[in-house]
Amino acid sequence: MFRHLFGLFPRSLVASKSSYNTAIPFPKPIIDAHRPVISSIPEYTFPILPATSVAGALLSGKHRSFRRDASRCLTYLRPGLRLCGAQHIPSSAPFLITVNHYSRPGFNAVWIAFAVSATVPVEIHWLITSAWTFPGRRLRRPARKISEWVLYRLSIVYGFTPLPPMPPDPLEVQARALAVKRALNYARQTPAPAIGLAPEGQDAPGGRLCVPPAGVGRFIVQLLNHCQSVVPIGIFEEGGYLCAQFGAPYTLEIPPDLHHKQLDQYVSGQVMAAIARELPSHLRGEYE
Q1: Exposure of 26 by Cβ count < 10 A (0-12 exposed, 13-18 middle, 19+ buried)?
Q2: Strands (DSSP E) along 52-204, which ranges?
Q3: What separation, in Å, do the N-terminal and C-terminal C-alpha atoms of the chain show?
Q4: Could you report the per-residue pLDDT of 214-266, keeping only the tens digit for each?
Q5: Could you state, in order of their start, the residue ranges of all structural domains in the chain?
């Protein structure tokens, strides 16, 4: 639990297969394609001291830049972030970022948001879970309560929108509807929204793509009324690196006369297929 809390906060090192052509004013990323790989998986280090200012912000509610904190945090990633498809990084909003919910034992999903936010040159409004559920673990109920407080405070500090965790709980229908309404209000009221979303919303076996829960496709359609283009991103580990592969932004073309269920399935399928194209074949799951 405390690793989740203190893991959120440190400077940016990026190892890239392609040229990095997007300016990031704080702190400037280091390009080092030759940093030695000493392990089959990256080393994710969560330094405690840089987290103190964020821990203070959790208590005070003082706003912070997640993009700045993500850039600092990547400095401690070894051997660095391998960035692919840098030419597809959007230079300005509005856009909707869609990314896979990569997972494996020992991997903290916050590194997905770090990798994306540190490389995109605008602040991203992330749609985050409102709780960690800790399935199958002892003391999961008190741990969930603590995580609810932490994530709620983080949403205040960084201006994110929390949504009830996946898979959907029938007891949280009203809470989910209110959270979706808040997300859509943000998109509607922001002149040029840059929104980040992992459509699956949950871990899947082996880190492979899975089908998003019902309703996600229609939610994306409503977001695209304000975000216009979709930016697909694949996050994965390969060759000892954490990799972020950006795909070309696209506009979703929706056939006419689809009823609600067809629309939901069609949009989810198109969005997930675009993400799958940015992943190694063994992680494409349902979309291989």
Answers
A1: exposed
A2: 77-78, 81-84, 95-99, 125-129, 161-163, 194-197
A3: 34
A4: 999 999 999 999 998 999 999 999 999 999 999 999 999 999 999 999 999 99
A5: 2-287
